[in-house]
Each structure stands twice: as C-alpha cells, then as structure tokens.
C-alpha cells in the first residue's frame, strides 16, 4: 500500500469516529474536508469560510488531496472533540452554535483561527440596524437599545429622539436568522407578543459579525431573564428556551370556518415550542392574522389528508385538515411534498404531551378569539 493510500485510509477511519463524523462547526453529517491547521473535520459549506478568514485555516480534502505523515498524525492527536474543548472553552452558555442550515452566513462571524468569537456579554447593547417599515416595506436605519436591567428591547426612529418608538419585553421575545425571507445575508427576524398577538420586526446589518453579536446579545438577555423567572433551573434546562427556530414555514391556502368561503393564500408558521400555527397575509407581515393552537391527540386534536368539498377559489390540490375541539381547519398545499411535510410537522406536535406552560398559551389564544 502506498503512503497516499495508507494516509487516506487513516483519515477515512478517523472521520467515522464519534465526534469526527459530523462537521465541527455546523454538525452536518459525513464531513469530507479538514482543517489540518486546527485538527478538525468540516463539511464543504463550512470549509469556505475557513479559507476566507484573515489568517486562513488550511483546508484539505480528506479524499482528494495529498496528506503527509506529519499532518495525519496531527489530525489523529486532535479531532473535533479535542478541538472544540480547546477553542470553545471560553464560549458562554448562551452563545449560538451554527447549525447545518445556517452555517453559510453565521459561521464567518463565529470563528477566528485561534479562538471562537463570543457574543457580547449580558447587559446593555445598542447600535443601528436597518428595520423594515410596517406599511411601506422599506428598510430604514433605526437605533436599537437592549437592556438586561428592565429586560427590554427599545428602538427609536431617530438617534437623538428621547423617547422610544416601541418597547419590547424580553419575556416573549424570540429571534431567528432569516436571510432568504428578508432578502439580505445578515437578516434577523425578531418576534414578540403585543396585546396577545404575534408581532414581527425584520432587521439586518451590513456586517455579519454585528448581526451575530445582536443575536447573541438577545440570547444573553433572554437567559438572564429566564434565570430571574426560574431561579432554581440550571443553564442546561433554560438554554433550549432562549431562542427557537420555527419547525416549518410556507404558503398554504385557507378557507373560513364554514368551509364554503373562498380560499385565500396565507403565509403559515409552525411554532412547535409554543404549539401554535400562525398565519399572515405575506411572509413579511408585521402582525399575525390569526393562530391555531395545536394540542395533543388525547385532547381532540388531529391532522389528516383531506380534499375539500363545496368550497371555491382553491387553486392548489393537496389538502389537509387540522381538527381541534372547536372546529376543523382546511388547508391546501401547492405540492404533494409540501403537504407531506406539513402533515409530519403538525403530527409531531400533536404527538407531544402538554407542558404546564402550554395550558397558558391555549388559554391566551382562546381569550383572543
């Protein structure tokens, strides 16, 4: 066996080991690339940002490139678990770790060659963000101020304005990266409750590092609030509740309660953690049109394939019915694949037992009707 083949076999065996079998940065399975200067295995998407760093991480293919003995020994001595323990040793618990679906725009702000860049510490954080207007839809510069003293996020129409345009309480705030929806690689969606209804703010910053800083500052302040609200809970118990990604989003057609009204196209968001199916007129609307609580099967909730009868206006042909104790909701999907994805996603929520806070969510939705 040649030296090339021997070293290639060693690397292919190494990448199958637990910890190495997923990308060190985003967790994608079966990485084919490695940083031979950091000793980590990464996926193709994450290999690009490594190359673009000011002091570039040296990236090689574990299948196609030549590896000398010294580099192979370095990879054997390190690996993803050891590298993570070293490079992420100072990363605070609230810091967001990139996932497979968002690494392309979050990763460059995460890494330096010798250290992972932590977000700002808990406390006051402020700066200028581009915010989408509620009605006209244009993005304008606004000053934002985040505080862990009164647990609020405020924004101002002008930098020198004394009073804020809005005060958002951290208690119900969520933040999620939304580059495709917003149309900017550094886009962030901020969601919160106002008078029982879900509100959205869509913002971005020209700097990827700055928008990641804002995201981590929000997470830090959320964690500080949760520690105040639940003083006996550990960080590991609170971390999943800091911010959340939505399970599924997309357009469906919806009819009214009598199922004879004309179908209308709406943007739907499934928030599994809150057990809510929200709908908006468009994907960039500021305020929800309505919400459906998704309870468990033993409380009378179900989701099934369903083709409507006697309705009008529906252009899409793949239907489903969400049944609640109060009524039946008929939704139409454009493609069968989307129908199956919605059925699976909603069905997963229905299969979960109710948590104590879910009863409060259900009661709030009932009062809002």
Strands, helices and their partners?
Layout: H1 3-14, E1 33-35, E2 40-42, H2 44-52, E3 59-61, H3 69-77, H4 80-87, H5 103-110, E4 125-132, E5 139-147, E6 152-156, E7 166-169, E8 174-177, H6 179-182, E9 187-194, E10 197-204, H7 208-229, H8 235-238, E11 248-254, E12 264-271, E13 276-280, E14 290-293, E15 302-305, E16 318-323, E17 328-333, H9 336-351, H10 356-368
Antiparallel strand pairs: 1-2, 1-3, 4-5, 4-10, 5-6, 6-7, 8-9, 9-10, 11-12, 11-17, 12-13, 13-14, 15-16, 16-17
Helix pairs in contact: 1-3, 2-5, 5-7
In summary, what is this structure?
With 369 residues, this protein is of the alpha+beta class. The protein has helices at residues 3-14, 44-52, 69-77, 80-87, 103-110, 179-182, 208-229, 235-238, 336-351, 356-368, and strands spanning 33-35, 40-42, 59-61, 125-132, 139-147, 152-156, 166-169, 174-177, 187-194, 197-204, 248-254, 264-271, 276-280, 290-293, 302-305, 318-323, 328-333.
Structure description:
With 369 residues, the protein is α+β, with helices and mostly antiparallel strands. Helices cover 28% and strands 26% of the residues. It contains 10 helices and 17 strands. It has helices spanning 3-14, 44-52, 69-77, 80-87, 103-110, 179-182, 208-229, 235-238, 336-351, 356-368, and strands spanning 33-35, 40-42, 59-61, 125-132, 139-147, 152-156, 166-169, 174-177, 187-194, 197-204, 248-254, 264-271, 276-280, 290-293, 302-305, 318-323, 328-333. The strands form 3 sheets. A 7-stranded antiparallel sheet has the order 7-6-5-4-10-9-8. It has a 7-stranded antiparallel sheet with strand order 14-13-12-11-17-16-15, sandwiched between helices. Strands 2-1-3 form a 3-stranded antiparallel sheet, with helices on one face. Strand 12 and strand 13 (276-280) form a beta hairpin. The chain is globular, with a radius of gyration of 24 Å. 34% of the residues are buried.
């Amino acid at each position: 066996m040649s030296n090339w083949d021997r070293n290639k076999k060693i690397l292919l065996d190494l990448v199958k080991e637990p910890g190495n079998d997923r990308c060190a940065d985003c967790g994608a399975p079966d990485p084919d690339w490695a940083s031979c200067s950091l000793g980590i295995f990464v996926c193709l998407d994450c290999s690009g940002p490594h190359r673009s760093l000011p002091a570039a991480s040296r990236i090689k293919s574990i299948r196609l490139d030549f590896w000398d003995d010294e580099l192979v020994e370095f990879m054997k001595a390190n690996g993803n678990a050891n590298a993570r323990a070293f490079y992420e040793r100072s990363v605070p618990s609230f810091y967001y770790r990139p996932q497979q679906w968002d690494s392309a725009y979050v990763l460059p702000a995460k890494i330096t060659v010798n250290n992972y860049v932590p977000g700002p510490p808990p406390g006051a954080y402020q700066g200028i963000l581009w915010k989408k207007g509620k009605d006209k839809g244009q993005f304008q510069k606004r000053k934002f101020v985040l505080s862990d003293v009164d647990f609020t996020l405020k924004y101002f129409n002008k930098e020198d304005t004394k009073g804020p345009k809005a005060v958002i309480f951290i208690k119900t705030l969520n933040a999620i990266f939304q580059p495709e929806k917003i149309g900017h690689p550094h886009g962030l969606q901020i969601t919160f409750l106002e008078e029982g209804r879900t509100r959205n703010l869509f913002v971005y910053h020209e700097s990827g590092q700055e928008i990641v800083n804002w995201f981590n500052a929000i997470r830090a302040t959320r964690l500080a609030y949760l520690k105040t609200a639940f003083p006996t809970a550990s960080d590991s118990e609170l971390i999943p509740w800091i911010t959340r990604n939505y399970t599924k989003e997309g357009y469906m057609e919806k009819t009214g309660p009598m199922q004879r009204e004309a179908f209308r196209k709406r943007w739907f968001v499934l928030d599994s953690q809150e057990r809510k199916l929200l709908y908006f007129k468009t994907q960039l609307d500021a305020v929800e049109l309505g919400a459906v609580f998704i309870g468990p099967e033993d409380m009378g909730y179900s989701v099934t394939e369903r083709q409507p009868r006697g309705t009008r206006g529906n252009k899409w042909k793949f239907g489903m019915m969400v049944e609640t104790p109060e009524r039946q909701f008929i939704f139409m999907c454009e493609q069968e694949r989307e129908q199956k994805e919605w059925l699976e996603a909603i069905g997963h929520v229905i299969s979960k037992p109710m948590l104590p806070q879910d009863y409060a969510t259900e009661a709030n939705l009932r009062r809002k009707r």
